[in-house]
Structures are given as structure tokens and as C-alpha cells.
Write a structure and sequence with these properties.
alpha+beta; conserved putative lor/sdh protein from methanococcus maripaludis s2 fold; Elongation Factor Tu (Ef-tu), domain 3; OB fold (Dihydrolipoamide Acetyltransferase, E2P); 4 domains; 6-stranded antiparallel beta barrel; 24 strands; 34% strand; elongated; disordered N terminus; transport; RND_pump_MFP; MdtA-like_HH; transmembrane transporter activity; Efflux RND transporter periplasmic adaptor subunit
Amino acid sequence: MPSQRPSRLRTLPLLALLTLPLMACDKQAPTEENAPPSQVTVETVRVEPLAISSELSGRILAPRTAEVRARVAGVVLKRVYREGSDVKQGEVLFRIDPAPFQADYDSARAALAKAEANQFQARLQDQRYSELIAINAISRQDYDNARAAALQANADVAAAKAALERARLNLGYATVTAPISGRIGRALVTEGALVGQNESTPLATIQQLDPIHADLTQSTRELNALRRALRAGELQQVGQDQARAILIQDDGSAYPLPGKLLFSDISVDPSTGQITLRSEFPNPDLDLLPGSFIRVRLEQAIKQQAISVPQRAILRDSAGQPRVLLVDAEQRISERPIVLGSAQQDRWIVSEGLVAGERVVIEGLQHVRVGDQVQVTPTAKEAASVVQTTGQ
């Protein structure tokens, strides 16, 4: 018996160590059971009209571009405008040496005066001969010659007037003016350059920048799918004057001034299978420059009875099928597969699987499982709507 007592004493500490984890588990079990439910943010499903937009790429183009060219041959005396400035239609840009054109004008004016003098003489002779032929004082041949000379003099005057007008135009072309209003670029010639010699030399380029155009491209596949949905009554056509266009800038932000759709081209580019759509944007500060690559979100149709959820609310199973988590009336989590349509900005259109009034979890999905009881927090927009309704 004495020999067994020490062994019993040795087993007591071992039993104490084994019972400690069990006691800890017993203490933790009530803590886990009494843990507060996880908080999730939900959005109530609504059926409402939704604009169907397409994000298209394209380039900025100036609505009007004019190449300023020399229309007469001569030496450039002076560049009048400031490069990179805004010019008005008719404003003087360049001056070409007008001396030879002034001489041609003076010569044409003198030729006209000479032709008018000959016309006066021929007219008087025709009048006298018409009186003499009436009394048979001259031959019929002399009268016909006088009559022909008068007609020839009239033609010479008309030709001289045309030559004078041509000389006047050439003299005017020596002063090069802006054909349109807009912003003018750098000068392509300098003082002393010989321009217009056997060709119309380009001098500068003017571009109209406000408003400005954005030419976009859309595949015929997307366009045909949109047309089929319109014919089936799934979507409603947006009027061309009502189609809004939002330009997406380089940093991903939206251009502050919305644009509009002008027209869609009637032919398809055979090399790309795409069609061109032209939109217009205000450009008062000239932030949009021709040639820039841009993206535009264009509203092309409206789905009157649309259900959509935020993209962050979508989960996918191992097969890639989309699903969402719902909160029922008992504040418990359930799961449901859905069928997605197209993506519109930060939301997915849901074709099947949801009905109005259901609550979809949009935040806190990673902390809950099916069957968990949760504490629901509405979105800030829904909470503000509830507060406003209660206040009313």
C-alpha cells in the first residue's frame, strides 16, 4: 500500500492538466453562442426604369477644319495673327505683296475705260446710221457694219469688266483672311516665302473646337442585339435628341458637361465590321482636343421594368454560376441562383431569380453563411428615404 501512494500522487497533476482544456471549452461555448449576429448591408430589390448604355471608344474630331491656303502667287510680307490664338471669320492672317496685283487691277481698269469709250463711239454711229437707213441715204451693208461694231463694243466692255473683277479678286487674295472662326495653329510659312507658285500653298490650319465632335465605333453584333431587343419590346428606343452621352476622361472620371448623339452612320466599315456614331460635347474651356482617344458612355435604350443589383453583391459558385445572398423576414441568410443580363456601370441587370421587395446582401458577404442570423443595415440611400418619409 505505501508503494502505491506515490503513484497516485503523481497522477493528480496529470488529471488536473487534462481537465483544464475541458473547462476552457465549457467557458468558451456560452461565449460563442451569445456572440452578436454579424452585420450586413442590404439593398431592397426594386423594379424601375433603367437606361441601357454602351461604353464605346473613339476619337475627338473638330466639327470644322479649314486649311488656310495662298490663292495667288506672291511673296509673304507679314504674318498678322498670333499662333495658337482664337481668330474670327474674316480676320486678316497673312499679307502677300500686293504690288503686282495692284498693277494688274489698274491695267484692267484702264482697259475697261478704253472699251467703254469705243462702246460710246460705236453706239453713236449705230444711232446715226439707223436714221440714215430709214431714208435710204446709206447702203444696207454700211448699216449692218455699224450695228455689228456697236454689239462688238458692248461685248468688249463686258469682257473688260470681267477682267477688272478678276484683278480685283486677286488683289483681295493678297490679304489672306480666316475662312472660319476657331483656333489657329502654327504658321507653315514665314515672311519672305514665295507661295502659290503653281499650287495653293498651305499657310496655317484653323479648327473649330466648341462644340466638338466625338466619333465612336460600335460593333454590328452589339447593334443588332440592341435592335432585336427593341423589336421584341424588351427595351424602349431613346429619341436621338434625348440620347445622353457621358465622356469618360483619362483618370476615369466623367467629363462635367454631358453631350448628345448626333447621328449613326448608314454604312459598316468592311475592315472592322463596326459602325460609326457621332456625338457632340460642349467644350468652352477647350479641354477636349482633336485627335484624343476617348471613351463615351452612350445611352441607347431604356428598360422600363428592370431589376438590377450592385456588382459587388454577386457571388459565383465553382461552376461560375452567379448567385446572391438574401435576408428573409427572420433575418436569416439564404442563397439563390440568378440569371444576369448586361452590366450597366457598377450594376448587373438581373433577368431571372429576383422579385421586388427582396433584400439582397451587398456588404458583409464574406462574414456570413447560409442559415446565419444577421443584423441588417439598409443602404444610406434607403435609410435617407425612410427618414424623409417618416418626417413627412
